Amino acid sequence: MKKGYSKTIIVLGRSGSGKDTQARLLAKKFGYAVFATGDALRETAKKPTFLGKRLRRELKLGHLAPTWLASFLWINMLIRSDPSRGIIFNGSPRKLSEAKFLNEVLSWLGRRAPCVFLVDVGEREALLRLTKRRICTRCAFVVPYVDEFKFWSRCRKCGGLLRGRPDDRVRAIRTRFLWFKKEVEPVIRFYKKQGLLERVDGEQPIEVVFNDLLKAL
Description:
The chain has 8 helices and 8 strands, in the order βαβαααβαβαβββαβα.
């Protein structure tokens, strides 16, 4: 990685784009921490606090967590992090207001402007991947419907059984696509206008997508 390069990377993409996989690969290569809003919210929902119980109820109803809560979680993570260590935001910021707020926080903390990637996948391909992907019932590893993962009959990490994700129903997926168009696409345009956005074709094999990310870096 170039000397003086931004220690903050943002990976965006609609559901099914493979952004989670690419964020993990980048983190492994550079030793960066990964922050995913969804994971942070689910961990918060597990806690036996008033906030945890309220959030758990809202998520079960299929409601989105409020913007202030998502922002609180990543701000808390940022201020606890060593400024010299890189951070990858996986799927965040989710809204234009969050993107502007994140820029303000990064600047105040003395971090350079982020490098933003859009792992671009069309709705048709994303729908196919989401309806076909599976999750391990033992270790919760998400098995994407790409490359060699298509042929897994059991989890090759722990041997657990694989099943479809309960939230990967066509109707729910299309709702997520509409939300992406309404909320995330303005974020993409915001970063593009700032000259921070790099688009990568996410419909290629995982290794090719990752190599394209590295070339952009």
